[in-house]
Amino acid sequence: MKPVAYGLNTDHWKNWMDQQGQPSWRADQVMNWLFQKRITDFKEMTNLPRDLRLRLADSFTLDPLTPLEVQTSRDGTVKFLFGLRDGHAIETVIMRHRYGNSVCVTTQVGCRIGCTFCASTLGGLKRNLEAGEIVAQVVAAQRFLDPKGERVRTVVVMGSGEPFENYEETMRFIRVINDPGGLRIGQRHITVSTSGVVPCIRKFAEEGLQVGLAVSLHAPNNELRSKLMPINRRYPLPELMDACRYYLELTGRRITFEYALIGGRNDGEEHAHELGQLLSGMKCLVNLIPVNFVPERNLQRTPREQILRFQRILQSYRVNTTIRREHGSDIDAACGQLRAKRIGVL
């Protein structure tokens, strides 16, 4: 398959133009057509010579995503199911916040991490996405918002898959959407979430980026985390916390710890105290997530009062804590849920 044009930033396009015997400023023109005007055909690049437009069309594709289904929630959340060129499907979500629109992108087709509360891992991992396929999700979301005069303000790499198992393409994606000639999304408006791939957390700390880091924690001790998240057997909780402290030391940036509350599993007062002790003194935020119902998983939701009690206990340890506002509760909200239904896993 031809590479996706959205996977190149300005420097990449300058190199490509040089290889074609074209002046470097053509790169800026291409970036403008792709990301500002958001054209859908190379023929629309009318200020480029015809032979160059033909070479672009021969070398790249502009349409890696085919909309298969769009679900819109009463709260404004929009979930897309996109078909890929090889017949696989992925999800992308627009979430509406007071501070603007956030887009949640996917980095892999499926997932092999195996978290027991997640629909993304049902059916396993099929393949990694290339950077252009990840960028195309943001472009598609922006096209959806264009008629409303709205824009994508923030991007969270929290969709299906483990971004750090597709590390190089994820980093390339970040640099493309951050490019001043591209979508111009500031690094501080981008967050990458990981289930705890320790070597890549350390590598990410050394990138020198201002991009946020979120770590899916979901348990306050090693034994319970191994039951909920098989990746913990490879990178145990003590190693994960060491990597997080390394990240904090190098970057000075706050880490967000994601904690999905699962009824009767990890939501007791004893778990809250243990979590408070684990994170006390760290520059972090705990984001408590009422677990989404996934029929295949048969998970129980934690009652609201119990969630609030859990939050109060964490706050008693001076751990900053929020409760995630639910998005798309009346549609297939859970990561991977719409795709799983489409391929017949649920």
TrEMBL record:
The GO cellular component terms are: cytoplasm
Tell me the compartments it is located in. Answer: Cytoplasm
**Repeat in keyword set:** no
GO BP of this protein: rRNA base methylation; tRNA methylation
User: Catalyses which reaction?
Assistant: adenosine(2503) in 23S rRNA + 2 reduced [2Fe-2S]-[ferredoxin] + 2 S-adenosyl-L-methionine = 2-methyladenosine(2503) in 23S rRNA + 5'-deoxyadenosine + L-methionine + 2 oxidized [2Fe-2S]-[ferredoxin] + S-adenosyl-L-homocysteine; adenosine(37) in tRNA + 2 reduced [2Fe-2S]-[ferredoxin] + 2 S-adenosyl-L-methionine = 2-methyladenosine(37) in tRNA + 5'-deoxyadenosine + L-methionine + 2 oxidized [2Fe-2S]-[ferredoxin] + S-adenosyl-L-homocysteine
Cofactor details (free text): Binds 1 [4Fe-4S] cluster. The cluster is coordinated with 3 cysteines and an exchangeable S-adenosyl-L-methionine.
Q: Where is the active site?
A: 91, 335
One Pfam family per UniProt: RlmN_N
Q: Would you say which domain of life the source belongs to?
A: Bacteria
The residues that hold S-adenosyl-L-methionine are 161-162, 193, 216-218, 292
Query: Can you name one GO molecular function term for this protein?
Result: tRNA (adenine(37)-C2)-methyltransferase activity
Q: Which UniProt keywords apply?
A: 4Fe-4S, Cytoplasm, Disulfide bond, Iron, Iron-sulfur, Metal-binding, Methyltransferase, rRNA processing, S-adenosyl-L-methionine, Transferase, tRNA processing
Its predominant location is cytoplasm
Q: What is its EC number?
A: 2.1.1.192
Residues reported to bind [4Fe-4S] cluster: 111, 115, 118
**Any keyword Iron-sulfur?**
yes
- Record-annotated Radical SAM core domain positions: 97-330
Q: Which InterPro entries match?
A: Aldolase_TIM (IPR013785), Methyltransferase_A (IPR040072), RlmN_N (IPR048641), RNA_MTrfase_RlmN (IPR027492), rRNA_lsu_MTrfase_RlmN/Cfr (IPR004383), rSAM (IPR007197), rSAM_sf (IPR058240)
Which co-factors does it depend on?
[4Fe-4S] cluster
What role does it play? Specifically methylates position 2 of adenine 2503 in 23S rRNA and position 2 of adenine 37 in tRNAs.
- Report the sequence similarity comment from the record: Belongs to the radical SAM superfamily. RlmN family.
Among HAMAP family, the record links this protein to: RNA_methyltr_RlmN
What else is on record for this protein?
Reaction proceeds by a ping-pong mechanism involving intermediate methylation of a conserved cysteine residue.
Name of this protein = Probable dual-specificity RNA methyltransferase RlmN
Q: Which organism is it from?
A: Planifilum fulgidum
